[in-house]
Q: What sequence folds into this?
C-alpha cells in the first residue's frame, strides 16, 4: 500500500480511536468534574457533543473549501496537530466548562475525516469511489476495535489516561503525515477560495443545485441523526439497561468495530458488485430499521452483545451513498462536498445528542410513567423510515427494476 494512503487510513483510525478511547470513561469523567447522577451526566454529554458539532457545522465547508484551494496536505496536518492539543486540554480539564471549551476548539478544526474523504475522491476512478469510501469506513471500524480495548486498559489508571494516549497518537501521526503525504490537489482541479461558498448556507445553495444532490442530502441528514444515537446514548443505555461498566461497554464497541471493518473493508466490494450502489443504500437502511426496533426493547445483555456486531451490516449504506454523491459532484468541488457532508453530519450531531439524551433521561427518570431506556432507538427507527422513503423515491428506475 502506498504510504500516503496508509497515512489517510491511519488518520481515520486515530479519529475513531479517539472516540472509542474516551467513550467508556465519559460518564465517570463528567460525574467526576460536575457531580450529579447518570441522567445528568448524559445531558452534559449531549451538550459536549453538540458544542463540538456546532463548530464543525459552521466551519466544515470552510475547511473543505480551503482543501480545494490550498490542498489536502496542509489542512490534514494542521487538523491533526489541533486534535492533539484538544485532547491535552481535555486531559487536564478540572471543570465541565473547560471540557466544553476543548470540544469547541476541536470542532473548529475537526476536518480529518472529511478531508480524508476528499483525498480518496481525488485518487479514485468514478466506479471505485464507493468501494474506496468503504476503506475509510473499514479504517474507522478498526479504530473502534482498538480504541475501546486501549481505553478500557488505560481507564484502570484513571479517567484522564485515555486523553493523553489520544493526544500522543495524533501528534505522532502528524509527524508521519508530514514525511509521507503527497498533495493531490493539482492546478487542474484547484479552485480559488471564496467566502461565498465557504459557509454552510453558501455551500448548500451551490451543491443542492446539482442533479441528485438536493434529495440525497436530506436523506443523508436524517440517516445521520438516526445513526448518532449510538455515540449519543450507548454508554448510558448499556449501563442503565444491562448494568455494564466501562469494560463491557468497551467490549461491545470492539465487537461493533470488528464487524464494521469486516463489512466495509472486505464485504462491501462484492455487495456493490452484486446489488449496485443504490440497492446497497436501500438494503442497509432496511437492516438498520430492524436493528433499532430490537434495541428499543431488548432487556438481555448477552442478547445485546450478540446483536452489536450485526448492526454493522447496515454500514453498507453510507459508503454507497457517498459514492453516489461524489460521482454527481465536479472534481474541483470534492472538498466542498465532503465539507458540506461534514456540516450535515455535524448538524445531525447537534440535534441527535440533545434529542436522544433528553429522550433517554425522560424515559429513565424515577417518576417516568413509562420506563424504556431504549426509547431513543425508536426515535432513530422513525428517522430511518423517513430516509428510506426519500432514497426509494430518488432511486433511478433502472436500479429499482433490477
A:
Amino acid at each position: 500500500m502506498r504510504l500516503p494512503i496508509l497515512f489517510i487510513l491511519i488518520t481515520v483510525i486515530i479519529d475513531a480511536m479517539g472516540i472509542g478511547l474516551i467513550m467508556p470513561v465519559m460518564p465517570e469523567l463528567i460525574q467526576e468534574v460536575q457531580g450529579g447522577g447518570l441522567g445528568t451526566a448524559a445531558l452534559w454529554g449531549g451538550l459536549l457533543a453538540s458544542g463540538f458539532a456546532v463548530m464543525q457545522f459552521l466551519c466544515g465547508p470552510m475547511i473543505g473549501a480551503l482543501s480545494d484551494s490550498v490542498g489536502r496536505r496542509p489542512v490534514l496536518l494542521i487538523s491533526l496537530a489541533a486534535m492533539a492539543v484538544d485532547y491535552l486540554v481535555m486531559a487536564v480539564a478540572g471543570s465541565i466548562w473547560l471540557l466544553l471549551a476543548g470540544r469547541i476548539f476541536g470542532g473548529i478544526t475537526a476536518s480529518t475525516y472529511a478531508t480524508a474523504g476528499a483525498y480518496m475522491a481525488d485518487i479514485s476512478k468514478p466506479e471505485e469511489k464507493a468501494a474506496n469510501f468503504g476503506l475509510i469506513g473499514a479504517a474507522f471500524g478498526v479504530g473502534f476495535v482498538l480504541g475501546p480495548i486501549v481505553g478500557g486498559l488505560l481507564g484502570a489508571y484513571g479517567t484522564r489516561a485515555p486523553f493523553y494516549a489520544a493526544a500522543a497518537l495524533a501528534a505522532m501521526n502528524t509527524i508521519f503525515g508530514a514525511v509521507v503525504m503527497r498533495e493531490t490537489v493539482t492546478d487542474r482541479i484547484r479552485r480559488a477560495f471564496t467566502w461565498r461558498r465557504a459557509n454552510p448556507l453558501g455551500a448548500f445553495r451551490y451543491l443542492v443545485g446539482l442533479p441528485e444532490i438536493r434529495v440525497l442530502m436530506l436523506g443523508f441528514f436524517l440517516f445521520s441523526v438516526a445513526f448518532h444515537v449510538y455515540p449519543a446514548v450507548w454508554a448510558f443505555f448499556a449501563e442503565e439497561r444491562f448494568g455494564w461498566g466501562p469494560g463491557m461497554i468497551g467490549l461491545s464497541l470492539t465487537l461493533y468495530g470488528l464487524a464494521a471493518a469486516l463489512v466495509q473493508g472486505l464485504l462491501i466490494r462484492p455487495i456493490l458488485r452484486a446489488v449496485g450502489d443504490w440497492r446497497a443504500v436501500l438494503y442497509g437502511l432496511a437492516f438498520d430499521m430492524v436493528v433499532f426496533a430490537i434495541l428499543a426493547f431488548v432487556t438481555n445483555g448477552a442478547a445485546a452483545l450478540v446483536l452489536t456486531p450485526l448492526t454493522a451490516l447496515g454500514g453498507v449504506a453510507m459508503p454507497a451513498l457517498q459514492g453516489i454523491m461524489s460521482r454527481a459532484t465536479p472534481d474541483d468541488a470534492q472538498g466542498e462536498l465532503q465539507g458540506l457532508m461534514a456540516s450535515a453530519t455535524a448538524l445531525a450531531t447537534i440535534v441527535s445528542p440533545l434529542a436522544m439524551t433528553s429522550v433517554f433521561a425522560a424515559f429513565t427518570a424515577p417518576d417516568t410513567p413509562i420506563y424504556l431506556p431504549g426509547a431513543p432507538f425508536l426515535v432513530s427507527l422513525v428517522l430511518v423510515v423517513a430516509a428510506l422513503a426519500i432514497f426509494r423515491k430518488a432511486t433511478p428506475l433502472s436500479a429499482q427494476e433490477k
Observations:
- The radius of gyration is 20 Å.
